Amino acid sequence: MTIFKILNRFKTRISILFKMNYILNCNNKDITGEIDLPASKSINNRLLIIRALSGNDFVINNMSDSDDCKVMVKALQSNENSIDIGHAGTAMRFLTAFYAATAQQKIITGSERMKNRPISELVDGLNQLGANITYAENEGFPPVKTSGMQLTGHQLNINGSISSQFITALLLVAPLLPNGLTINITGKLISSSYVLLTLQLMKAFGVDAVWDENTITIAPQFYRTHNCTVEADWSGASYWYEIAALADNANITIRGLSQNSFQGDSSIAVLFEKLGVSTQFMENAVRLTKTDSQTNFFEFDFINNPDLVQTFVVTLCMKNIPFRISGADTLRIKETDRIAALQTEMAKFGFIISEPATGVLTCDGKRDAPNKHLYIDTYKDHRMALAFAPTAMLYKNLVINDAMVVTKSYPTFWTDLMKIGFDVKDKLG
User: Fold this and answer.
1) What is the CATH number of domain 3-38+232-427?
2) Best exposed site among 46, 77, 290, 311 by fewest CB in 10 Å?
3) Under CATH, which architecture does the 41-228 domain have?
4) pLDDT of 230-284, one tens digit each?
5) The pTM is what?
6) Catalytic choice (307, 329, 381, 416)
7) Of residues 61, 69, 101, 62, the one with CA closest to residue 85
């Protein structure tokens, strides 16, 4: 390990301890550089569960260094009765199903925010299968207690409009159930691209499923294991697309991405064409360049890509493009209430973000004068810091409060910004 990497890790730990606030500037709007994206935590955590369920310790190359994946690794290696997953939503959902399916007695808890994120839909589903999971504190919310009872059921109903991670958690354990599993999805399925990602990864490890309209059926099977490599994170790439869109000129190479990705957020390659960013696919990489093409009004349903909403709201406002974004229904129960957070922080720039209907965000392009000094609160949400950082290209001395929340998904983000010319300074808040 190089001295630079050692110092960077030390700095990261100190920053987390003291809730570091970062001051950003970017005086050069001709952006050129090469970036190695972090691995996809969505793929990484699914592979960790598949490996644990398979009983074979196959090699996962390019493992994510994100907080969420570190939490998952630690939990799966732990012999403790109580597991604290912090802010990691995927770990809470996946582990609840994993411990139930493997008949382990565990208490799974998390941060105060996690204790306010609903989990009853998953718990009810597992209990339909015979799990007998109970709540340690408040009904319907973590912490949860798994009983160690065997799952004997083979069919359940689950509401698909709350979190696709509930369905993924059930799908991952389904092959090991003695009678397999049939999941009947009620309501409107959100983030279906993540369910498809799960099924594609399971198929890559030998597990077949049948998805017929609102029903997914998986027969009893075994995972057939092999070494694998985690693809880079397309959600993380969205912030580089944002930077390219806000630049005067851009030539950014992002390594680790595939044109045939399983990740639903790879759709940004097409969506950002409307915002003046062209994508050239290369071997295991993409090149972003700036174009003169730009829409006068942006409208899109992000029901399958909710993690992109913050990126697009900020980018569209900064480019003065009116928009109507729908499909943001679940943003209020993420790491923070992302709709309220967006409304509050965009108001600091003078933009009014309205929610005329549930999960619909609009902005007519009109704005008031921005605050003289811009301090962006991140609400313990990595995507708030990641989405707002590029605005430093337009506003000097932008402050990102509690900047190291990015370690949840993109630990090297600030270092990568400096590589392409951003000035990033820290100040204890």
Assistant:
1) 3.65.10.10
2) 77
3) Alpha-beta prism (3.65)
4) 999 999 999 999 999 999 999 999 999 999 999 999 999 999 999 999 999 999 9
5) 0.90
6) 307
7) 69
